[in-house]
Specification:
heterodimer; A: 123 residues; mainly alpha; Methane Monooxygenase Hydroxylase, Chain G, domain 1; 4 helices; flat; B: 170 residues; Four Helix Bundle (Hemerythrin (Met), subunit A)
Chain lengths: 123, 170
Amino acid sequence: MPGTYLPSEYLPVLIFILVAIAFGIGALLIGTVFRLKKQYFEKLMPYESGITPKGEPRYRFSIRFYIIAMLFVIFDVEAIFIYPWAVVFDKIGMYAFIEMVIFIVILFIGYIYAWRKDAFQWD
Amino acid sequence: MLPELFFVYFAFAIILLSILVVTRKNPVHSVLWMLLLFFHIASLYLFLNAEFMALIQMIVYAGGILVLFLFAILLVNIKEEIRITRFIGAWPTGLTFAIGIFIVIFVSIKSFVLGQQGTYTIDFIKKESHTKALGKLLYTDFLYPFEIASLILLVAIIGAIILAKRRIKS
């Protein structure tokens, strides 16, 4: 049931988040108090290494980014399965080791397939 | 008292953030609100005594899926997206559906009964730690589904590459 359990060991995480939020807001506030407020056209332009920007900043976006992101998600999920395995590995022993080897070998086939198909190649 | 207070905060924050995600005109802003939404959902898992689920929520959803969303959004024309109207005019249909779903959820919450306590109680998981309890079960009793998961991931890899590579060649 929600609202019955308090994860008290995560209190440092809560404090960390609150400090991070306070730091972000504080830094912006101090900036607004102390900085000069002179605004002119050149200052408000998008900064492009000191060169006057011309045309849209948008350009055609390569689908390759998308492939890399998809493969990243898949191998991310694979890595997720290794975390609980690493925690209980010493309890289950050889049995757990063999099943994890099978798991990784199956995904390694996929990795080799992606490699042979030049999915990691940029051109 | 304190757990309820936290739950009320997360419940309202999740509703508010979900509304912000669907109403923003700029899709990139939607994604940023969604990042905050995922962190709140992760915290909700934490309060359900499922810390492993909370961390998966952060690593996979906030870390992986959101990058996928962002790349998908960069493929559409954001300048064009900001200019056009967001919602189609058929609001009576939407309202009817919303009220219908609300009634269904309300009735089902009324008939909600707390089941019998199983082996994995809060105290048990607290003693054992959530990840350990999950791992012990996953790698012994649920070995077969675990190996099937690797095959599903393999299918996903091959599918992604076949789809994208055909696009590039043509």
